[in-house]
Structures are given as C-alpha cells and as structure tokens.
Design brief:
CATH superfamily of chain A: Immunoglobulins
CATH class of the largest domain in chain B: Mainly Beta
Helix content of chain A: under 10%
Number of domains of chain A: 1
Number of strands of chain B: 9
Largest sheet of chain A: 7 strands, mixed
Distance between the termini of chain A: 29 Å
Oligomer: heterodimer
Order of helices and strands of chain B: HHHEEEEEEEEE
Number of helices of chain A: 0
Largest sheet of chain B: 6 strands, mixed
Radius of gyration of chain A: 15 Å
Shape of chain A: elongated
Strand content of chain B: 35-45%
Structural class of chain B: alpha+beta
CATH architecture of chain A: Sandwich
CATH topology of the largest domain in chain B: Immunoglobulin-like
C-alpha cells in the first residue's frame, strides 16, 4: 500500500516552507470496531523530508499523530525548481512518497 | 543425540535469520536513518517515564515557542506548532512532543540537521484535557515549554 502525499514547497525569503498532507488511518491499536474486535495498530512510524538528496528532517511518530497526518517544516536555502520529497514508512511495512518542486 | 544436535543447528539458523530480518526491519527503507527511533520513550506509559527515556528533566526555556489551541473541540485533531528561536536557544537537533494524559505520552520526535529551521507543525491526538509539552534537545540538554489544552471530545473514541 503506497500512499500518495500532497506536498507543497514554497520559498519565502531565505526559507523554504514545506507542507505535506499524508493519507493514513493512524490507528492506535486501542480502538474496537462495531463487532467489538480490536482494530490492529496501523500508523506511520518514520517520515523524512529531503531537499534534493539532503535530509531536511526525520520524524519518528507514534500512534498519537492524527489520522491523515499534516506536517510543516522549514529549511534554509533551496531555490525555485529544486526537488523536495517526503517519504514515510508505517508499522505494517507500508510506504508513501510525494515529490514537488520549490516555487 | 543426532536429533538434539540437528535441533541446535536449526535453532541457531533460525536465530540468525531472525537477526537478519530484524536488522532489515530496523532500516526503514529509503527513509533517512541517521538517528535511531527513541523506542523506549515511545513505549513509556507515563510522562515522567517518557521524559526520563529522552534524557534528563527538561528546564523551561523561553526560546521555545509552543503553540496549541486553548480549547480543542475535537481531541483527535489538535494542531500544534513548535518553533525555537535559534539565537535564544542554539544547536537544537531534536524536538519531541508529549501529551501528558495519552496512553503513550510521546506523540512524535523530530531529528533536525543543521540548516533546518527548528520549526515543526503537525496535528496530534489528545485523549483528554491535559498539558502538552514541547521538548527541545540542544548540546545534550533538554529544554521545554508546556501548554494546557482543554479537550471537549476525546481523541481516542471511535
């Protein structure tokens, strides 16, 4: 299950602002479905932001990050047209990836 | 005797496989894995335990700007922002967000390389009205800022 990521990177002065919206249920493993059965934990554990090949941020997440997670980060440098990429992996081996260019 | 011996080998073989698979699982694919996930802190079920696993007791620092809503109508989606003034508190390489009354207080932890602004925006679940903590690590020391958020509807229902 590879999830797509909505991602935007915008240059503001010397700073590039990245905003990413991921599609993911972020199940804690503590909820039950209508039949009373536990819903297995399913959440993004690692998320990284890259500017070209350079890592800009690595996040380690728990199940307490909201469903369909939003992430905003800012880094110095970056020119219009440079690629910015966000990738994640979850606790069930799923991955997601999104790429955009700075504008 | 032979069966025991054979069992011993297979068990060792199995262990070796388990180690290889474990190592593979620990490498999160294409995700930058420069810094390991703070597993012990994520597993902690109390705030003190989580903070102890992250390092020392954090000191309150005014250089950390922590923004959360005063009242969250929906605890499942609580927007938060952590911003650190790099002049007031330089060399921050890690920012963690903790929610005091959640089953596992540590919600997220971010590794920040030099050149990246210490600025994180995300949304977290907050089980009930409690204090949220933003903890920044700089030069091996922990600093924090805390904010209380009142929750009208808990973040763990469903």
């Amino acid at each position: 299950m590879a999830g797509r990521i909505k991602i935007r990177a915008q240059k503001k002065g010397d700073i590039t602002e990245v905003k990413a919206l991921m599609r993911h249920p972020m199940e804690t493993g503590m909820r039950k479905d209508q039949a009373g059965d536990a819903i297995p934990a399913h959440f993004i554990t690692e998320v990284s932001v890259f500017h070209g090949d350079q890592p800009v941020m690595q996040g380690h997440w728990g199940a307490a990050v909201s469903a369909n997670p939003f992430l905003g980060v800012r880094f110095a440098g970056g020119e219009a047209g440079d690629p910015v990429r966000v990738v994640w992996t979850d606790n069930q081996g799923g991955t997601g990836e999104g790429e955009t260019t700075i504008r | 005797m032979t069966t025991i011996h054979a069992k011993g080998i297979s068990r060792r073989g199995w262990l070796r496989w388990a180690m290889i698979l474990g190592a593979a699982a620990a490498l999160p694919g294409r995700v930058w894995a420069a810094v390991a996930r703070p597993e012990a802190a994520f597993g902690a079920t109390a705030l003190d335990e989580a903070l102890a696993a992250l390092g020392d007791t954090p000191q309150v620092h005014e250089g950390i700007q922590f923004t959360t809503p005063d009242i969250a109508e929906n605890g499942a989606v609580v927007p938060i922002r952590v911003e650190v003034d790099s002049e007031a508190l330089p060399n921050v390489r890690k920012v963690s967000v903790l929610v005091e009354m959640n089953p596992n207080p540590l919600a997220a932890s971010f590794d920040i390389p030099p050149g990246t602004e210490v600025y994180i925006e995300t949304r977290v679940k907050v089980a009930q009205t409690c204090t949220l903590y933003a903890v920044a690590e700089a030069d091996g020391q922990l600093y924090m800022q805390s904010r209380e958020t009142k929750v009208t509807l808990g973040g763990c229902g469903g």
